[in-house]
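Q: My collaborator sent me two sequences in one message, no labels, and asked for predicted structures for both. Can we handle them in order? The first one she listed is below.
A: Yes, handling them in the order given. First sequence, followed by its structure tokens:
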Amino acid sequence: MDVAANCSLRVKRPLLDPRFEGYKLSLEPLPCYQLELDAAVAEVKLRDDQYTLEHMHAFGMYNYLHCDSWYPDSVYYIDNLGRIMNLTVMLDTALGKPREVFRLPTDLTACDNRLCASIHFTSSTWVALSDGTGRLYLIGTGERGNSASEKWEIMFNEELGNPFIIIHSISLLKDEEHSIATLLLRIEKEELDMKGSGFYVSLEWITISKKSKDNKKYEITKRDILRGKSVPHYAAFEPDGNGLMIVSYKSFTFVQLGQDLEESQDENMSEKIKAPLYYWQQTEDDLTVTIQLPEDSTKEDIQVQFLPDHVNIVLKGQRFLEGNLYSSIDHESSTWIIKENNSLEICLIKKNEGLTWPELVVGDKQGEFIRDSAQYAAIAERLMHLTSEELNPNPDKEKPPCNAQELEECDIFFEESSSLCRFDGSTLKTTHVVNLGSNQYLFSVIVDPKEMPCFCLRHDVDALLWQPHSGTQDDMWEHIATFNALGYVQASKRDKKFFACAPNYSYAALCECLRRVFIYRQPTPMSTVLYNRKEGRQVGQVAKQQVASLETNDPIFLL
């Protein structure tokens, strides 16, 4: 059985600046232009039944301004009349007057449970469009940058069930067969989820194809669904359509389309009453896994394979437990024995001593963790100062008690770390996994429309931009740019709503919910001589911060 490769992101040290001194506030004026619209943007407010954090992430924080990455000067939005409006942005000059390029054939206001209409620019001549009611449109546009050849024409139009938004789409041409792959996001109700939010996130991978040049009709040729518990920060197809990459807090897995609901309910109920398959304990140095063996089991019936990040247990020819471990182990020192009570005891030696594992096998819920009395006593001792009547019950400790009000957002520890996963389009299995740990996801941006969108992660205090590639493991994620200290700076912006950067990495922009937009520019040479008074050296470059305060309190959208 193929096992997903555990990978890591390789930072290019030459792109880091350890001597970066911070951003200097610049009072240089920023050009601001205002344009009145004849119809409001088709903004959709969250309903009362859309109350979870995932609903807010997916729909409440939606950006209604869409930049055409194939023609960077073009901006689109959808208004209340169902019109797709296009305007041209000429930097430092003016805003062009919006013009209608397409009108949705359905009345958006007639649907009570609709989502925000979404649009994705698939290629220089194709657009994927959702009206927010559950209908998908594929539109041939001609060359959008040429007004003479631009003509928006519906090539595919079909109802696909519950409302969704479009996350990503690509255009493919293989053996004269033209296909468009789209990734759709829904948040569905889960009736059996009694402990969680009662919802799950669905990503549907739909491929729509035209078999030959003579055949003008496009049809759905493939539908696959991924299911998870959190809205992905990032999800995009590889340019060749052979894979999908997702960054999310909680993992996604492919599920069978059309799986019988009653069967799945029976399976879920049986899982709830099923006894644990194994029990496990841990110390600072190792983990102990105990499995009750079937009667008359012998040593020859047991096969245990240890890998640095993986374990595989086979009992009597059947796979008992297999998967990626939460952290690395010393596989050469790990052992297993058969106890007198007909149980299998496995000892895994931790490679990172002192690290507490929240789970044994990533995503596996079949085991039960047992904490011994010594661990309970140690935890109680560490937490005693939180319940004492005195401010600092141990006078021998020099460190003052922690004041939570003094903590900054950048000091907050995320209980669940994000992961970056690559899924194979043919096998529908995970092939590569990167545990992002404390590398907080910040934003995504399209640098080259022919490549996958880039994503930006926080590394220590910096913000690093990564370009995914559909290639081998060694160059699958490339570090292409660094925004110095931006990871730390953005953490202080409590009201941030959108985050982006220029395709040439010259600046990053952070937009708050109302009024203010912060711009952080890369260091540029100084025209005058400037010295660092502390170190007595000349400063050759300065990074500037600019702030734009808008005259309105209306919600802001960012290109």
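Q: And the one she listed second?
A: Here it is, processed independently of the first:
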Amino acid sequence: MRAEDDDAGGGEFVGARLDAGLRAARFASPPSADEFAAAVEPRNAPAVFRGVVKDWTASSRWDPRRGGLDYLREKVGPDVDVEAMMSSTGHVLVPFSKFMNSCKSYLRCPNASSDSPKAQEILKEPASSEEGCSSSLESCDQVYLAQVSILNTENKERCSLEVLKEDIQEPTFLRGKPFSSINIWMNRAHLRSSTHYDPHHNLLCVVAGCKKVTLWPPSSSPYLYPMPVYGEASNHSSVSIEEPDYSRYTRARYMKEYSERVILNCGDALFIPEGWYHQVDSDDLTIAINFWWKSRIMNEILVDKEMNKMVQENSVSCSKGTTVCQPTDEESGGPEQLKQKQVNSDSSDKKDSPLQTLEPSTLQALYELISLVHNSAEMVSQNEITEPTSQDAYCKQSNGSKKIAADDSSLLEKDPIAKIILPLKPLELHSMLLAMARTFPRTLEALVVNMLGPIGAEILTRKFDEMDQQATKEQQSEFYKTFYSVFDDQYAAMDALLNGKEMFSFQVFQSVLRQYIGVTLAGLLVLTKGQ
């Protein structure tokens, strides 16, 4: 396997501030599945594979300029409807054959387009008058097929173009990947996508035409101003590529310096890791296939029983009158043993990605935090955290440091974030948060701003204090600079931490009042007022 030299010519470029380790690797010949899994995917950086899908039937038969439109129309048949996208109205159901006819009309006369409102009316017409519809559909440039499923493991009913799977092959280096979906993308006229990222790994394969893809690593999120975390388009940038408003998005003026643009022609493929922002310009009559799958690291976490057992051994056990302590090196296998185990299994990749530097138990904790955010249907309110009632809310270890305890094991169950981060040693949490900031910045932002409860805020800030005691001034400065850089509003993050600590102190005070005086704070206020 040999990587090509970076090519900045032909419209490709690399931003001056983009770290060399994040630049797209280029391959003149495809790697094996083992090579991809060991040396490409773990880098968590893009990779270009030249000519890797040129032998597909799709690459030779689908080209609109070589009879591909007639071939596709006949192969799919007249009775298949697909969801097309229009720039102004969104999803519209349209017969696939009708879209092919409109592409043929565009191919004959690409400049004979008119305003899109007429095309919107055409798309609403019954599909029975196909020829009349297709002749009028040609009046709209911005109608295209986006993410129309050929395979969808979560919803097989959405696979309206499953018949086209016969014309594509699974790339050899993706063999064994658990694909969540395989999709077709096709546009008539030149098309520009918004800047966004995907929650899965992505292999984008061009089978006709040309695509220019601009890429940004997850760490560039502050320059791209992503949409609010819990909005409908939280994975999209707020900044317009055509006319960026630098007065409103001041950091966006630097976004090009952290980007890279690659050009994909027929037969080429691009690996886009999950979380990487990308913006795509497609030439007229371009067709592409993409494969989505979950990352190897997350899949390994889910199925690694030995790792799960180790994490269970590290879990915090709370009982009445006992102190919550960190697990010993013997109980957890020891950080050095874990480190050696990771080095032996993946020594060639550890330096390439922030995730590869994490110990197995720390990586497990990272996955659990990511899952909490991604699996939440709505924001977790701090008011949902039940206040502690234990007389052992504070207890001292032999070294005099304060630890959180409870009268039963349910205390931390009520704050899952606190339960995850409490067993982590300070430097383990330090490494995990840095990896999260560089790889999953939006998830970290949602975690702190929207989901952190009082107990979690108290534990996290105590861990920060412990980190500071073990780090130099330079390391402290670098950590907090990276940590707070992921927040669009850094003061909101600070407020979330400080308000959480304040709420925690209030809950502890209430607990003390209940135990030693037998009243609540509200009751005490009533008594005081009565006097």
